Amino acid sequence: NLIKVIDRDQEENLMDLWYTENHQDDTKFSIKVQEHIHSEKSEFQQIDFFRSKTFGTFFTLDGYMMVTEKDEFIYHDMITHIPMAVNPSIKKVLIIGGGDGGTAREVLRYPHIEKVDMVEIDERVVRLCQQYLPLTASKLDQDDRLKLHFEDGLKFVQESADGSYDLILVDSTDPIGPGEGLFTVEFYNNCKRVLSDDGILINQHESPYYASYAHEMKRAHSKIKETFPIAKVYQFHMPTYPSGHWLFGFASKKYDPIKDIKADEWHQLGIKTKYYNTDLHIGCFMLPTYVKNELDNA
Ligand code: AAT
After folding, report:
1. Same domain for 116 and 244?
2. What is the mean pLDDT of residues 197-202?
3. Is ligand 1 within 6 A of the CB of residue 103?
4. In what order do the strands lie in the sheet with 245-252?
5. Is 117 an active-site residue?
6. pLDDT tens, 59-118?
7. Given the residues 71, 100, 171, 174, the one annotated as active site
8. How many other β-carbons are positioned within 10 Å of the β-carbon of residue 260?
9. pTM beyond cutoff 0.90
10. What residues make up the domain containing 51?
11. Cα–Cα dist 32/51, whole Å
């Protein structure tokens, strides 16, 4: 999927390097690269870091965009603050994936959170993000409440005790390669078991727009709604992901994400956010008709 297009710039006679991701067979998204900072094949995946003018430093896994410096606040606000405003007394959090550290950074802004276990399969992603994306990775070695585990998230939840977390955030790659097991019924059942009675599961839920991603969205939703009594989907705008329209899933045994929002309590915490707010919290669950229909038929 990683295609480097090298063009000769007419005027300056310089070589241009572009990062290109195929969003469809005939549709590509490209960012002009100022520098290809790092490239390696880890035990699990191909990892590349680039520098660009518009999106700052960004990194890809197996050629797919993961995080850019400029738009990561959107993704990390939306994965974290939605569940935290539904249950502001969450104390024990499990993050699966999220090697860049952005999700952990947002979670650790809540002073009453007691413990965060972050389970990332690929230690190299963490170490490279600490080196090249210090603004997202900054909290990974600075907060005693956070414990890093370098192992498969599926195996970790299989081995975790019942009811040990109030919140699970699945900040995973797409369901190909190492992320595949995190989109299975077995995984969702284990998440349900290790969550407390008022626990919440948020998962990376793909995109509704292009058919190949919408297929994964439907597959994930059909499995989660079989597992949890409350299973909703919410949307946000992610400029560098395919089609720019992306989703997270909200699943719970007890809380409805709209009816049970504790907006006043959340405001009292004084957490400043650039994308999330409590109006958007309600709005992001209002889905376009075609998305609603696809999810209803999932
Ligand atoms: N914060 C947004 C970044 C990501 S990266 C997702 C991370 O999940 C990667 O670091 C990858 O190594 C890790 N991962 C993949 N599979 C597993 C697994 N089985 N167990 C633990 N960690 C895993 C998300 C990008 C979303 C992209 C959407 N197109």
Report:
1. yes
2. 98
3. yes
4. 146-149, 115-119, 92-97, 165-171, 195-204, 245-252, 230-237
5. no
6. 999 999 999 999 999 999 999 999 999 999 999 999 999 999 999 999 999 999 999 999
7. 171
8. 15
9. yes
10. 3-68
11. 9
